[in-house]
Amino acid sequence: MKRMKAMIAYDGSGFAGYQVQPDSRTVQQELMNVLKTIHKGQIVQVVASGRTDAKVHATGQVVHFDTALVIPVAGWLKALNVLLPEDIRVLAIEETDSSFHARYHTSGKTYRYKWDRSQIISPFTRNYMVHTKQRPDVAAMRQAAEAVLGTHDFSSFCAANTGVVDKVRTIRRLDFEEHGEELHMVIEGSGFLYNMVRIIAGTLMEIGLGRRHADEMAEIIAASDRSAAGKTAAAHGLYLEQVVYKG
Amino acid sequence: MKRMKAMIAYDGSGFAGYQVQPDSRTVQQELMNVLKTIHKGQIVQVVASGRTDAKVHATGQVVHFDTALVIPVAGWLKALNVLLPEDIRVLAIEETDSSFHARYHTSGKTYRYKWDRSQIISPFTRNYMVHTKQRPDVAAMRQAAEAVLGTHDFSSFCAANTGVVDKVRTIRRLDFEEHGEELHMVIEGSGFLYNMVRIIAGTLMEIGLGRRHADEMAEIIAASDRSAAGKTAAAHGLYLEQVVYKG
């Protein structure tokens, strides 16, 4: 058996999320359907770095699967992209060590969150950016972002319905980029709790819109209480951009 | 009665085209539905500069309609965009002369056709650009484009199923722009026959891919025969970008 590691991109608009669930179109199910076809009916498990929610996009999700088939990597790339629906693309694939694990061996992830500050949102970006008609104060968002950097208990930025006990995570980078009317938040960390990026984005936007003060961010983190933070930003602005592995 | 002129953009992906047709979702029908709501059930006719086909996009379509309502333009813009589905946006609206006609008074139109030359097409652009995996020779396409400029009988570039008799049109501009992996054809002319832009795009791409020689373009025009030209390029690469009016 060979273990294959693939980097994939998907447009989350048409999916109920990454992970398989009954009666829903999911990225994992589409990948498994195609691998089943390639393996002549045999079920092949696919393991991702983590799940993404409905409408959330990926430009650099990583998955692994095991195969007994002897196919060169160019052949894998071609076969997968011919068989997959167009809203999922395999960007790269390689044979990896049999001990590699797409989920357990991550050492970090980068997410990007996109807002569109245009007066009228383009019909072409409606599924790919979140519209904010009122112009946010990006300087205030940058100032508040500083409090997020480093190692903290992120209980305030974790959806209540989760079984995770250890909520300490390390954020290495939290930048804002402005590309014309687009405003991007780029966040890189050791790992993320459920909805953590979207709650951080939502809270920082409330600060940008003057509904909260930039100084509050440190207090919100210290509160270790979901109700202290802002609203969860909409799913369709979020992109899983990169997954980094140990070693 | 006041005549209102509006510039609209739409993502063609979810429409069977601009023009109303039974049991299909069309841009015109969505506009008329919203105007009917605003006019408390009264039917308001909407006239566009011309129809666009299924999957064809617009970034600068122009329409007009008549209304007895007294609403400031900012109010019109807001009301229309609140009520319209997100894949249609009104970009601008103004009161215009009652003699203005969105279809009859056009003096020119600009279309843009987009190809993606990436090895693997992004899942985010699949509905907005046409993938060409083989890299086209843009210099050859530019050379061939020169033959298209000026006033010609464009019968070779007109879908056979049309009742139009006069097939003479003037092309004022035909440029290729390269934006990273994107290749755009921008074409501006006095008017366009049915499928004319897509047949020109398809024929120029065949030249770019070496299936025809750049010199053939003049002969194809001279033939005045649809079968002399190349295939009609796919609809989802096409954008109606600008409509120009007389006077």
Automatic annotation (TrEMBL), chains A, B:
<dbReference type="InterPro" id="IPR001406">
    <property type="entry name" value="PsdUridine_synth_TruA"/>
</dbReference>
<dbReference type="GO" id="GO:0160147">
    <property type="term" value="F:tRNA pseudouridine(38-40) synthase activity"/>
</dbReference>
<comment type="similarity">
    <text>Belongs to the tRNA pseudouridine synthase TruA family.</text>
</comment>
<dbReference type="InterPro" id="IPR020103">
    <property type="entry name" value="PsdUridine_synth_cat_dom_sf"/>
</dbReference>
<keyword id="KW-0413">Isomerase</keyword>
<dbReference type="InterPro" id="IPR020094">
    <property type="entry name" value="TruA/RsuA/RluB/E/F_N"/>
</dbReference>
<keyword id="KW-0819">tRNA processing</keyword>
<comment type="function">
    <text>Formation of pseudouridine at positions 38, 39 and 40 in the anticodon stem and loop of transfer RNAs.</text>
</comment>
<dbReference type="InterPro" id="IPR020097">
    <property type="entry name" value="PsdUridine_synth_TruA_a/b_dom"/>
</dbReference>
<dbReference type="Pfam" id="PF01416">
    <property type="entry name" value="PseudoU_synth_1"/>
</dbReference>
<feature type="binding site">
    <location>
        <position position="111"/>
    </location>
    <ligand>
        <name>substrate</name>
    </ligand>
</feature>
<comment type="subunit">
    <text>Homodimer.</text>
</comment>
<feature type="domain" description="Pseudouridine synthase I TruA alpha/beta">
    <location>
        <begin position="6"/>
        <end position="104"/>
    </location>
</feature>
<feature type="active site" description="Nucleophile">
    <location>
        <position position="53"/>
    </location>
</feature>
<protein>
    <recommendedName>
        <fullName>tRNA pseudouridine synthase A</fullName>
        <ecNumber>5.4.99.12</ecNumber>
    </recommendedName>
</protein>
<dbReference type="InterPro" id="IPR020095">
    <property type="entry name" value="PsdUridine_synth_TruA_C"/>
</dbReference>
<feature type="domain" description="Pseudouridine synthase I TruA alpha/beta">
    <location>
        <begin position="144"/>
        <end position="245"/>
    </location>
</feature>
